[in-house]
Amino acid sequence: MKNLNSRRNFLQKGLVAGITGGALLSTFGNGLQAAVDRQNPYSNPADLKITDVKCGFVRGALYVKIYTNQDVWGCGEAVDAIHGTYHLVMRMGNQLRGQNPLNPNRLAEQIRKGAFFGGAQSGVFVAVLTAIETALWDITGKVFGVPVYQLLGGKFRDKIRVYCDTALYTSRNPSPQDYADAAKGAVGRGYNAVKFDVDDGRDPNKYDRFNWTASPAEIERMYNAIAAVREAVGPHIDICVDMHGRYDAVTGLKMAKMYEPLNLMWLEEPIPADNPEVYKSITEQTTTPICAGENIYLAYGFTRLLSESAVDIIMPDIQKAGGLGEAQRIANLANLYYVPFSPHMVASFLGAMASCHVCASVPNFQVMEWQIYMDTDDLWKDIVTYDGPRTENSFITLSEKPGIGVEINEEGMRKYAVKDVPFFE
Ligand code: MG
């Protein structure tokens, strides 16, 4: 408020000094004053500086909060490759302190290429950078009074379609009937697309813990489970099947071919996503759409998969792959190859809404992941603050609030925090 007042005083003094004539002063002065009043009262962009970066860890996620010298802050989230990264967050925070946060792309690139070797970086480094980059977009939206999608160039859609991961993988040896029941349960909640994992390291029909050529009984199990789902939900519900990149090319191709009559929306990572040549071979030999990318970082990571037509659909994780700006670049790159963008998503509603802003901003968005336990488990409600509905009939309505539109709830998060790691300190 102090900065706003000083700006207002400066403008008023300037007007009084530069304009003579009472009528002109009152008309022009009031208009200018109204324009000043429309500015976000919490921030004076030119004088904004990052003062601190703090973080907390909850289960498999990192939550970052970036503070400034004005009454505005930003939140971001990263998942998966974040364990043990407290000191990396502090290091990146030190690089940001004193800088104006309103250039998310530039600051992220500065950190990405600013390490000792000066290279692009990957893995844990990029995952942590993702949370920080996201928080910078949140601040920027709040300061200019616009939702993040507006900063990304505007929106193609108001609602983001989600598919429901039924989390049946938490059950031991689920039967085809269990799959069918889980699918009907998700459809009963309003979802029009579902996902199931079929890889199962505990399958008693598996002969070898390290060799992932599926046995005939494993293949039968994987097929029967999804056939039961199709039978249960009928022809108009989309079905995704995930093999988590655990199988070899022999099994991956066999499953893709077997699933063809079930008309899947996609088969996800039948093999690891590291070798585009093998992906291309499987993709070319089946009519089942092949999808990959949750373990790939940065737009660079997707270049060969796309340029070699190795996959039909990409699924980057927007809380891991490099941030909101980078995810938009990945989606736009895919769009040049007419490939749909269908992000992986296991984050809280903060990450979900951050992802929604990216999904809204690109033409080729198809569908985003949602986990059924986010509808039911208290943790997901406790750790963030959001006053609207989360999913309704397989859609998330895009937030129109400045920034991401969802805040970290530090008090709600504290009871779930990873022990013996500083928590927003
Ligand atoms: Mg997956």
Note down, in words, how this protein is organized.
With 425 residues, the chain is an alpha/beta fold. 42% of the residues lie in helices and 14% in strands. The chain has helices spanning 2-18, 22-38, 86-96, 104-112, 123-144, 148-151, 176-188, 216-233, 249-258, 276-285, 298-307, 324-336, 349-360, 373-376, 378-382, 410-414; strands at 50-58, 61-68, 73-79, 159-165, 193-197, 238-242, 266-268, 290-292, 313-314, 368-371, 384-385, 395-397, 407-408. The strands form three sheets. Strands 4, 5, 6, 7, 8, 9, 10 and 12 form an eight-stranded mixed beta sheet that branches. A three-stranded antiparallel beta sheet has the order 1-2-3. A two-stranded antiparallel sheet has the order 11-13. The radius of gyration is 24 Å and the shape is globular. The model is unreliable at 1-22 (pLDDT under 50). It binds magnesium ion. Magnesium ion binds at residues 242, 244, 268-269, 294, 344.
Features:
425 residues, TIM Barrel, binds magnesium ion, Enolase-like, domain 1, alpha/beta, 3 domains, 13 strands, disordered N terminus, 42% helix, globular, three-stranded antiparallel sheet, eight-stranded mixed sheet, 16 helices
What would a concise description of this structure say?
The chain is of the alpha/beta class and 425 residues long. Helices cover 42% and strands 14% of the residues.
